[in-house]
Queue: 4 jobs
Job 1
Amino acid sequence: MNSLSIPPAHLRDTLSRQAYFRGWDAGVLSRLAMGASQFSVGKDMPVLARGDVPEHLYLVVSGQVRLFIPLANGMERIVSLVMPGEGFGEVALLLGASLPYGVAACRDSHIIMVNARTYLAELSGAPALLEHTLRLVARQHQATLLDMEICSQPSSLLRVVRFLMNQRPCAEVDDGYEITLPGRKRDIAAKLGLTQETFSRMLSFLGQQGVIAMQGGAIRIGDGSKLRLMDASICAKEMQRA
Amino acid sequence: MNSLSIPPAHLRDTLSRQAYFRGWDAGVLSRLAMGASQFSVGKDMPVLARGDVPEHLYLVVSGQVRLFIPLANGMERIVSLVMPGEGFGEVALLLGASLPYGVAACRDSHIIMVNARTYLAELSGAPALLEHTLRLVARQHQATLLDMEICSQPSSLLRVVRFLMNQRPCAEVDDGYEITLPGRKRDIAAKLGLTQETFSRMLSFLGQQGVIAMQGGAIRIGDGSKLRLMDASICAKEMQRA
DNA sequence: CGGCGTTTTGAGGCGCATCAACCTGAGTGG
DNA sequence: CCACTCAGGTTGATGCGCCTCAAAACGCCG
């Protein structure tokens, strides 16, 4: 976790390029950049521990960061994979609460941290920003519930199928579509509440059933209806058991 | 789900008594009451299905309501138990999205629904309300993550122990404390990601270990440190396995 | 006291985690 | 250009824990 010293003007430009701040006022960004600083983290190095009270808003500039809940057996349940341009920590800041998750890098990453007081000051009384942030947090909440839906399912195969269905890009090519896993398989597995072994087994099963085709980190879904069929068939099987 | 016809003035008074609207302006409440209506739901009757696009903000006046994710085997994973004075549906309204959970009554309940357009109109451009709502949603998000932490734990006993630890009231009596389960055991179990059988077994185990004492729906925790000890011991056991 | 909803207790099977070994591909240095 | 290394992924064998199913016990209200 090496902190880099970067001039505020450059920081402001970097901030303005983050998707997180799309549509934000330039003046606001300048002021945010004043109390901001950038640092780098090596792969799998910790950034924040669960229970820390954050004093910054965090933005992932490059690399990838995971928010995770530490489990009793030493493993992690990944709550969110944060991609470049995205941020984390607002919710805890808004409540003045401690982080409900730990933070670590999935790979070598660059992160900017923005002073909390500055951030909160800009927010308070600014309807546009408040509305923007409200929607942001609402989206995060919805996403978390979607994750919960997946990893509450009783069958591990079903979890993988549902995950793949959710990964469909908006634009679907006529002969199916291709997705790139948003991270290492171990991290995806941890997000689905599975071990990487089970995840791997389910993927190869789907492969030999002809539902998907794996080629490295990319997965081809030749026909989306096969996935839906598989989904329905698993649900039917689970229902008759109960 | 019988809708009752109640005069707006009375509705306004009822709204103002809900904890949800604590601190809200009287004028705002009057306007919200205009497009509001009240209805009653019988125990275990559905209110909304997962995927519905809600057109109202919902407030539980009496009874208890559960927000749940339907599982493939016909069971439910309860996301939240909504008590009188609390509400639900804001997040989906704010995003114009469909509900990520189904809604049903845990017992005979009275619910008020407030017209979405009215609600959103009041909110937009009102910094105080926006800030209030932002914090509300942030709290909900934190609560969801806390639930996720519990029900991601690998041991069912640990989940129950963690749940009990989270139930501690702020004021702790010197000779321990007593908690009342916030709902039926089956519902609590569904919130912890357990079957009611497993939940029952874990509770009786904790009982015969002297960690807790059950008397109907109430649970005495003679000594909180015993719970923490049990927690630590389970974690140690899980760690050594891995 | 009788009825129902809820919880408890018991027996059994299966799925996933666990552990361990092997495979693959990318990066490195001689 | 190949030998080596290491991280990430795959595959196989085993055991335990929780879900499932079934039935009895409890608590509550009429």
Job 2
Amino acid sequence: MSFTTAIQYAVCNSLGGLFGQEFTEKDFQVSETKPEFEGDYTVVLFALVKKLKVAPEALAKDLGENLVKNNPGFISGFNTIKAFLNLAITEEALLSFLTENYKDVCIGKKPVSHKKIMVEYSSPNTNKPLHLGHLRNNFLGWSVAEILKANGHEVIKSSIVNDRGIHICKSMIAWQEFANGATPQSTGAKGDHFVGDYYVKFNDEYKKEVSELTEEGTSKDEAEKNAPIMKKTQQMLLDWERGEPAVMELWNKMNGWVYKGFEETYKRIGSDFDQTFYESQTYLLGKDFVQEGLKNGAFYKKEDGSVWINLSGVGLDEKLLLRGDGTSVYITQDIGLVKQKFEKYNLDKSIYVIGDEQIYHMKVLVEICRKLGMPFADQILHLSYGMVELTTGKMKSREGTVVDADDLVDEMIATSKKHTEELGKVKDFSEGDLKDLYEILGMGAMKFYLLRVDPKKRMIFNPDESIDFHGFTGPFVQYTYARIHSILKKVRDDERGEEGSLAAGSWEFEGHKSQLDVQQLLPLERQLLIFLEKYAHVISQAGDELNPSVIANYVFHLAKTFNSFYAEHSVANAENEEKKILRLHIAVMTATVIKSALQLLGIAVPERM
RNA sequence: GGCCCCGUAGCUCAGUGGAUAGAGCAACAGCCUUCUAAGCUGUGGGUCACACGUUCGAAUCGUGUCGGGGUCACCA
């Protein structure tokens, strides 16, 4: 039981005893005591003052006395200010929490719940490389999946690859027309970038043709429709749908290049998937359900044969489900895929990590599922996140202001190399160790930067800020971890009277008695313990809100508090042996929680940096 | 225009019913013969967009106004 829960329980009991009636934890609030006041937890009793018609001070005082009396091993004292009751936790309780958990790698995680949740994220198009927006999506999806696992759920990470459609044909046509048989191999380009360049080439060519036509007097609409390269592209899409061998071969070849490029990027940024869906395999799935909906009257057909749903009853518009020529649109395949997902995996919930510009689309999907009587309609959840903007405004591919994912990763790693070399603390590292360290720090900085903000909010990407390794950043937290490792090493070297290397991931400090005597805690020691105890709550809050920034804020605050403690009190040269052992435990526990929390964000920790 | 989201320090963000609204960056002033200074300590910086309301209590809830964004495709 967490301290907060235990306090709620104790308060209910004491109130019941004092007033002879039932109370629940909703009758009052328990929060951490603000630093400017004395105490660890505060019970806010204003609501009860009114209900019970008693004086605030008196209520707080009576309750405080009763709590101390009835919880001798837990609550050691109290003070009151109006209806605020500040409680102090006993050393005994804090220290037993510490000894029981200090090196538990599963700290804060919940037992298995048997809930099955799919998290669909990333979902790229195969006509261009990943950019900054995809990075937010990938980090967010991956982290949310891990956070849900930590909350005891079974999680399936999935991705739907948008590998077909007119936009894919555009890069194919451009390659056919302009590449002269060039390949990623022949040019040394990364596959996804190589294909992306032809997508850009298509648009340039298209624009040129349209302006030529309009200069000849064609209307803009006509020109856009009849530009020769567009005609060819549309023809190619038809050929693709018919399975024309030459087109299929080209399609397979070019997508193969892209997948090879994606694979490289995913590996670097740590994205992985348990299941990958391909639109080319799912785009026909929804058609049958549309027919079904037509039959039972959920949908209707217009004169041209197109099929629609009217959602004006729930505040949405009418929406096309199937084109007049019988081909499917985007949402058609979504209907098919969602059903397949729930049936194949027997899901309790399906979370879609998609940008907030698709809120409307996802609402429509849920409504369609409802209208079709699909039982899982309410288990679809759109985790929408805000767009990443630049300080100069939105990213626009046409204006070349898109921040490429691979470039950004390279830059972050180069920056971490630069900082590390300037500081010169790891000159004894091997080439391989250095490379790993740069990777850990660069990726840590980038992931932390993109995950520290509430996903629902739009965020501004500031290039200077993102490569900062000081303050509210990943490397700051990683640094705190490395410092703790250094403390452990120092203690061990002192004991042995020689330089010894601490085994990786080992927190053992044998040679000391492992038992902690009950002792007076200094304010910072106490503060750290109270804060560490909160970690379990933070994991469940992040899980409830599907919000990794909760973890990022917490772990930063923890590192910050530890660094203050570190500056104030020595571990290796503590006042006495008792203090030394206590602080070793606290240091190890801080490291354990930092490692666990950063892992939930997809960030690794270095032992030295 | 309809619907949805946002507005907190110079900048980027926490805080979603409780005490005198907090961090980081930027600025300024200090701290390394002692466990890593990628750190610590301090100073300055606020009409929580505005107005009214609900409440013992509002940055937080409600209504309205202003400002910014998204969306309402036989695109995906």
Job 3
Amino acid sequence: MANIYAVAKEAKVSVATVSAVVNGTAYVSPQLKARVEAAVHKLGYQPNLLARSLAKQRSHMLGMIVPDIANPFWPEVVRGAEDAAHAAGYTLVLSNTDDDPRKEELYLRLFLAKRVDGILLAKSPGRLSREMAALLGVGRIPLVKLFRARNDLPGDAVLLDDRQAAFEAVSHLVRLGYRRIGMIMGVKEVSTGRRRLKGYRDALEQAGLPFRPELCRPGDYRVQSGYSGGLDLLKLKPDAVFISNYLMAVGFMQAMRQYQIRCPQDVAIVTCDDHPWLDSFAPRLTTVNFPKYTAGAEAARVLVERLANRGRAARTIELRSSLTIRDSCGYALQQAAAQRA
Amino acid sequence: MANIYAVAKEAKVSVATVSAVVNGTAYVSPQLKARVEAAVHKLGYQPNLLARSLAKQRSHMLGMIVPDIANPFWPEVVRGAEDAAHAAGYTLVLSNTDDDPRKEELYLRLFLAKRVDGILLAKSPGRLSREMAALLGVGRIPLVKLFRARNDLPGDAVLLDDRQAAFEAVSHLVRLGYRRIGMIMGVKEVSTGRRRLKGYRDALEQAGLPFRPELCRPGDYRVQSGYSGGLDLLKLKPDAVFISNYLMAVGFMQAMRQYQIRCPQDVAIVTCDDHPWLDSFAPRLTTVNFPKYTAGAEAARVLVERLANRGRAARTIELRSSLTIRDSCGYALQQAAAQRA
DNA sequence: CTGAAAGCGCTTACAG
DNA sequence: CTGAAAGCGCTTACAG
């Protein structure tokens, strides 16, 4: 592929002039400009971004770390981040950690080696190794925390209103008259999981309901944990359950199916994460709807702004969720009953 | 961040020696090696991959183009590709085209400028511009076609058995006794769409059933087209429908809901794409299950092999689908009826 | 076995 | 306004 020297030769100018017209970075007389443009076109010249990055010491790449793109929570987040990144002239490089700190470490190291300009991090459980923390600090590479906040990680953050979301979900169940409300928890080692648990407890407390630890089952945001948690929890006869994400709800439904327990007639459910297809299948899930696309886009924007202005104080943005009421909470059922009465 | 010169200075050797030990590319005496390693550790040296790529003329990046990562068909494909790419020492850069040829052109150009070593392409409708075709040809940059094949695009391909998949799905419906079978088609300008339509027609023909064009509604793999197609199609009273992907099935279900038509009692459905959550919600969808993760991984592997061996003749790999029978096709219903009889 | 030096393809002060 | 040259951080023949 033609390089800048070939273009300069063809146009009979210096490479500085070619660079100036290609980047519009300095005035070039119309005649020279025309000659350069003709040469660029003739040779099909595409500036080598690798070389440019090396020279400018900016790669215009952003690294993004998520647990698993195949978990349907993440694609929209990633899409939002990608659109915003591209709009700002950045390319996004994605990695999946499966919430494994070793993979995370590996990919962070790779990002550093590739000299990404900044990082979007949905942190896996646990703290960074001292070494990685030092590397990140030394390079002064901006990092924005995505959903999963940590006090030991400095910098900007865009979060969900996890506590509030869980609080509203559970309060909704309380309002519908359920008294024995269980929970399939999120990853406890991570802020989203802890905050959702807090919301659950706060809602119970406000309703004057006791907190029963045995009704709270651990989960890891995957199908299997929702299933096994459901198998255990359902034996304890809850009348409603709040589930921390969609995939665990899927597993929980498998458990209900196995026990031949109906939703919402026997056990009501409210879930986190909304999806376009939830309206089309029964039971139609009542959910707490997080603005996923917006969150990803916002995170990328915050990172890009940070790149432009390193001095500014760190920001934390918290995005609001909204309750989408459908059938699985039993609301429609109660309405129908009221109607008949 | 420390560079190779700083390390060389610290270890009192030349940069060639540092390079040799960092890359294990030549024998270095134990003493020098130890000194270099100590210096690397002390300075926290991370080789700059940008510079390495420039020097070696290989970026170790793979570009991947998909329509939309937020369409649940793609995340698993991407995850497969990413895992395989990383395993082979490559980094994947992803772009979403929304099946818009202009975005596709834009991103391809970006990939070329970034000097990716190869491209995984789920082609948007239509042919490449002459210019892009020339660029791709000139750079001799390997490209593997993902699912969407085109004769005017040379190179390796990994495909789904679209025709066979559709054939089996529709034959299954025929076997269950349906005679007025409709279809929500995929994107016709793309091979997957055409091949699935072919499978549908072949199945009808083999069953001696007439092909009725009015029962085939266009679709674009998005929810909305399944919905509006469903609204139209259902007026024609089909007894069963084959739908080309999951998102359109979601839209189709919305249309059924609106008309208060039940599935499978009134209209049976078989769909393309399986998902982990389909077991948990009603109607439980009977689907043609494509090996998505494997397909992505396979495509990345084919591309990496091509990079290692440019001479070899182009390969086309076709992956087999399998029918997953659940409730939406009415099979269970018929079984129950037979039981009673 | 080890090092000096050229080259990868850009950008950018600095002269003129 | 334009160009010669150094620099970004690597790799890799080529001497010795």
Job 4
Amino acid sequence: MPPPPALRTDTFRRAISMRNALAPLSHTLNLGTPVSYRRNTEIFGEKEPADYAYRVISGSVRTYKILDDGRRQIGGFHLPGDIFGLLEFGDEHTFSADAITDTTVLVVKRKTLAVLAGRHPAIARELFTFTGRELRRVQDHVLLLLKTAQERVAGFLLEMAERTCAGNVVDLPMSRQDIADYLGLTIETVSRTLTGLESAAAIEVSTARRIVLRNRSALRRLDS
Amino acid sequence: MPPPPALRTDTFRRAISMRNALAPLSHTLNLGTPVSYRRNTEIFGEKEPADYAYRVISGSVRTYKILDDGRRQIGGFHLPGDIFGLLEFGDEHTFSADAITDTTVLVVKRKTLAVLAGRHPAIARELFTFTGRELRRVQDHVLLLLKTAQERVAGFLLEMAERTCAGNVVDLPMSRQDIADYLGLTIETVSRTLTGLESAAAIEVSTARRIVLRNRSALRRLDS
DNA sequence: CGACCATTTGATATGGATCAAGCGATGTGG
DNA sequence: CCACATCGCTTGATCCATATCAAATGGTCG
């Protein structure tokens, strides 16, 4: 919504200097202008012109749609290193995005990326790889929605543990409602399932937002 | 599975001459070698090297995964004009594909497409557009799986009607089991739902495989 | 401390799965 | 040409996972 400042050489340099061990798309996509959003504020809305793509530096983002019946479906959670807003069909965003926690992102014009990709095959290849990974992610989401509540929650926890790379302690940035809207369940079911997993000694719910994985293989079994 | 003959200049020319009013990706992707498959035969299997991409000329194809618990999830149905097998993460197919009915496809090396895309920005752009459309399709599949049985079936019929472009008469190439595995339902539920839609005068089930849409707006309302 | 919001827990309802049987079309051998 | 087997589909009865409705608990921030 707030159009970020145009990409200028100095901001470009500044962004490049911020390059760090952000996950997998090495370096070429580490450009753009840093912009920050406060918790629960909108980054962009569905149907808005998709001029910019974003990469998370710190914090966390959810992308979602509001369905006709008022329910909200979360398409994905985006953690540091992740890109979002890039792959849109046509010129409008197909999802809304907002910051779950206070978040800083790098903003870059999609058009700029397109030009760069045209000029540098390496960048084009990276974009293509990213696209493949994104497609895979959405396909996995389809498979997730076919499973039982227990499998969905167990799978979600394992995925978050992997993505946050923090051993067995998973600090969830998102609320139960967010999780429910991602997994296609209700908050009650998510809560009950977590309680169930705790009774089964697979996890420990330290606080609502902090889960400790006690028995990964059990979780993996439940994930099936 | 049966590795198609290598792309040679004469087959290339032959394929180009077959160019016709196949749907949306105009012409540049209308190249490759025609190959035919009989009904219910495998085109490729999951985990096989993804050397080739395919475009349906005539017939129909399903792509699917077999899940750990033995269920089958159909990722999509591919009708004349559609491309499949192109977007794979890495070098292996992530889905299996087989012919639903007797089917002819154009086969082209993915590598060839990559080279062509590198050389011709127009082709690169077409591939990118296709990718965006594919991503959208999978995202829509996610949304589909959140709906009620009635909404899924109604939405499926509307989609098929649109894709086959045959007015109100929809000739389904696939079985109830295929539909169920696509919609994440059981055959019983699909069957009952169709009967229900017929009672509601929204459709007419002429034969098991031929559905006539009697009241699209009602269907659209049920699709929500 | 008190208010508010997120989460958990409890009781009940329900949509779709499962189990089981019947039916209709298609094809095959006698 | 018909009897019969087969396969895909429909219909029926029951069960179960998750939604829904409702209330209690707990954590956070003024």
